[in-house]
Amino acid sequence: MARRYNISLWAGFVLIVAAFVLFPTLFVRFPATRDFPWASLLMFAAGLAIVARGLIRAYREPAACRGKVSGPILMTLGVAITGMFCFGFFHLARQIPASTGAPRIGQRAPDFTLPDQDGLPVTLSELLEPPAGAPAHQNGVLLIFYRGFW
Question: Is the dihedral angle over the CA atoms 49, 55, 60, 63 positive or is it negative?
Fold first, then answer.
């Protein structure tokens, strides 16, 4: 009986490498796949499952399929690539350095001017001073910062 190549091993490994390469080149462009890498994780899971299927086939049918040597190597490399991606995305990317120039909690914010929803300039100091003819009382401003997609 002629031995045939175990294509599952190589197809799964190519899918794992594609998931690793496609995230920074393609998936990062779209908010749906950039904020949480669900597409990459599905590709990693499918690739690892296909490699595992090929590895099982290589050991169940050693006379018919090749891959008893390359199978464990490709599975180890696939798990290592998946682990590096998860460590980089879920841990390293979340390590934001502290900003030395940012105001601290309770510290007054510096005066600034920004456009409002209508495009008119609004200054922080104007918002904090009481309106003309109104009794002097303390005004407050709530500043909300959120991550946007620019």
Answer: positive
Dist. CA 49–CA 79, nearest whole Å: 11
Is-contact 23 85, C-beta < 8 A?
yes
* The one-letter amino acid at 58: A
Q: Domains of the chain: which residue ranges?
A: 7-94
Complete DSSP assignment for 23-46: HHHTGGGSHHHHSS-HHHHHHHHH
Distance between CA atoms of residues 85 and 74, nearest Å: 16
Helix 70-90 / helix 38-60 crossing angle, nearest 10 deg: 160
Who contacts 62 (Cβ-Cβ below 8 Å, separation ≥6)?
68
Integer distance in angstroms from the first to the last C-alpha of the chain? 60
Hunting for tokens 């390590």 — which residue is that?
Answer: 95
Q: Is 70 exceeded by the pLDDT of residue 109?
A: yes
At 14-70, the pLDDT tens digits run: 999 999 999 999 999 998 998 899 999 999 999 999 999 999 998 888 877 778 888
Question: Do the Cβ atoms of 71 and 54 come closer than 8 Å?
Answer: yes
pLDDT in tens, 66-89: 788 889 999 999 999 999 999 999
